[in-house]
Amino acid sequence: MSGRPKAVCLLSGGLDSSTALAWARREGFDCYALSFDYGQRHRIELEAARRMASALGAVEHRIVRLDLAQFGGSALTADIAVPKGRSEEEIGSEIPVTYVPARNTIFLAVALGWAEVLGAADLVIGVNALDYSGYPDCRPEFIEAFERLAKLATKAGVEGRLRLKVHTPLIHLTKAGIIRLAAELGVDFALTHSCYDPRPDGRPCGACDSCLLRKKGFTEAGLADPLEAPP
Q: What is the topology classification, in CATH, of domain 6-221?
């Protein structure tokens, strides 16, 4: 036993979640990485999650199967076209079809269950409320509400043994700020995957909202993205 506090870290394999995992490691947590195979069209991200969990020294990495494609309702889990080539204004104008209904609520609930078993009082999630696609479950109000829920919903919370904290180290950063932090923390950008609609060979499409936000972030950070798709 290391004696360090344990944290369950949500890890998609994307830039934000990888940076959040690296942040948790720097903060002295023993990191238990948690990913989800939820029927997403960009399932290739799970390979990135495996690579990143290993590279960043996670104590353990679990991939949980939750088939949200049974419900659909999102371009990531149903036969709905992923928006491409949208302007920054269009991306931020409304909640997009790439929103997966209640995804972060579901993921955090599963993470909470594992944390209670581990005796961990800390969850880490790479949500961001600035350069993002307008998802309601990335806002500070949602995170605060989930912390209140965790206290009421768990034996450890009711008995006062654990006061669960949801850490959101990226929530007030721009995408460029996240990229600068990732570089500072030693995140290997080549191991990450951000694209919602990757090409058959797994390369990013370069045109979906996630690819465009990533490109904007690297440009503003003054750094080169090793995954940037060719024209």
A: Rossmann fold (3.40.50)
